[in-house]
Amino acid sequence: TSITSAKIEVNGVHLHYQQTGEGSHAVLLLPGMLGCGQTDFGPQLKSMNKQLFTIVAWDPRGYGKSIPPPRDFSPDFFERDAKDAVDLMQALKFKKFSLLGWSDGGITALIAAAKYPTLIHKLVVWGANASVTQEDVRIYNGIRDVSKWSEKVKKPLEEMYGHKYFAETCEAWVDGISRFAEKSDGNICQQLLPDIKCPTFIIHGEKDPLVPQAHAEYIHKHIKGSR
């Protein structure tokens, strides 16, 4: 089963996605900061069960091959991504689908599951957070300068974007996500978590350098019945 690569117009932008499999259970893979389907989900596109699942991996606007437009981080960028993601799946004629989101894609998936409950079948998030603390801002500033990144992480992103776009977009991301910490509770989507009704599975890496484990525990505590 081959992987299709295509673009579709959604909310005034041309979003790139990859699709494979012919299973009855549709799944959308949501990449993390600066990521796209190919950089973040190559192994899943290749190895997930193609009989059980129809797998779609998308490039959010301004990332991967969904450029133009260039990526920006307006105050509502997570909500915008959530709407784009859901509208993309509807444009592809999926009536109901599951979300697998990592990092920023996990935040996007949480918002989508809360706001569009009738469309979301199941939810899996890893490396996600529902708020931003001052400690988080300190951690984010540690990755602001991409020249300090490890070669392994940096290389595929530099190949995709070129150094300038990669470096500038990373800085813009740090500024954009740090803005949430200016609110008293650092809230991104805490108030939406109780609205998530679908079966939810939260995964967290003990050694995650960017997202402290307390974030995963908070999400688990506030999504009823989550594991």
UniProtKB/TrEMBL annotation:
One Gene Ontology MF term: serine hydrolase activity
Record has Hydrolase as a keyword: yes
Domain of life where this protein originates: Eukaryota
InterPro entries: AB_hydrolase_1, AB_hydrolase_fold
Residue ranges annotated for the AB hydrolase-1 domain, each copy included: 26-139
Pfam families xrefs: Abhydrolase_1
Keywords: Hydrolase
Entry protein name: Valacyclovir hydrolase
Lineage: Eukaryota, Metazoa, Chordata, Craniata, Vertebrata
